[in-house]
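#onboarding

Welcome to the new folks! Below is a worked example of what a typical request in this channel looks like: someone posts a single protein sequence, and someone else replies with the predicted structure as tokens. Don't worry about understanding the tokens yet, we'll cover that in week two.

Example request:
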Amino acid sequence: MLHVVSELYYPEDAATAHYMTGVAEHLARCWPVRVVCAKPKYNTQLRHLPKRERHNGVEIHRCWCTTFDKNHLLGRAINVVTASLSMLLALLVSLRRGDRALVVTNPPVLPFVVLLACRARGASCCLRIDDVYPEAMVHGGLIRPGATAAQLLNWMNRQLYRRMNQVVVLGRDMRRLVEQKLGGPSGNLVVIPNWADLDIVAPAGRRGNKLLREYGLEDKFVVGYAGNIGRVQAVEVIVGAARQLKQARDIHFLFVGAGQKLPWLRRAIEQGGLENVTLAGQRARAEQDEFLNACEVGVVSLALGMSGAGVPSRLYNLMAAGRPVIAVMDDDCEAAMVVRENQIGWVVPPDDPQKIADAIVEARSDRQRLRELGARSRRAAEENYSRERVLAMYGALFQGVDAERGAAGSAGQATVEGQPREQPLPSELT
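Example response:
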């Protein structure tokens, strides 16, 4: 049995829920899969989902937890503790010797309790790193760099990585950072990026776009920001670029999303008189074909120093929409490398609003080049970040675990538990 452990899962709309649902349902084609997750917290309409259900071949076990406001630190901490303990108890009941678990890093306590449960029950454990700690907390302003808490978290996560059977990282910069923590290359590390939703996001013209019509932006050059407006995003410098371009009446910034910095963003717009910025609020993932195609150029951002600590997943769907990208982040971030290697936009530092403004003006000035960048963006998404390609990497990862177990066992004593039920997935991955 393969246990996928994630606080967020179907039918929640967050990125973690989206990707872990896709991974679990794909792996369920070949292995029996049970998901252990928390009850939905952020969407009140989903609060009454059944504790247990089966969906697309996956057995889902939803655990009880508190549902305090995630934007308040104390409430969020209580949510983390109750969800993690509840999922720990569920795993201690369901795990069996020889089982495997795949766990994510959010909330930060979760992988530790899952590893504990796996050790107690004789199961193997694979970690998917979405955020590297303490770096994500330091750059999010939650703890001070060099503080005792940061040093302790660094040591704890280093021990965590060493004790996992496999560790999945989302980018090359993340692999570099994890290897630095481990003191060198590690054989249990594998890079598997997030995928682009090519089946539901495709290039489309702006004419007739509902979002543009809703806000009266049909005749504007729209710079789009979609996703989490959170602690580790360089929102302030993007607003700085909007200030620089305040007099350029044809350029407009459109923010779609929510997060901890949203109240600050509202105040900055109001106090700065930024009529060239519109907040469209949180939109459902099902609407992303609409809001990603509303922009002429899309922005993805990470705060200064965040290289390796996280990878903005929205990049891949901007590429699916055939949009050029302005990557506002350190030069050695995975997203910056993708933009540069595929020649699909601009990479600018996350502390220089003038350079962001310059990139936007350059994009507006050459529409033919913009179309060429967009075409390359879609092509790169199709060739390198399709759902099928990425999910095949997860299949190959767990197929490899089975192969190792088979090699370790004596001839004629192959175990039944954990073996694929269908023809193995292709493993010829470049």
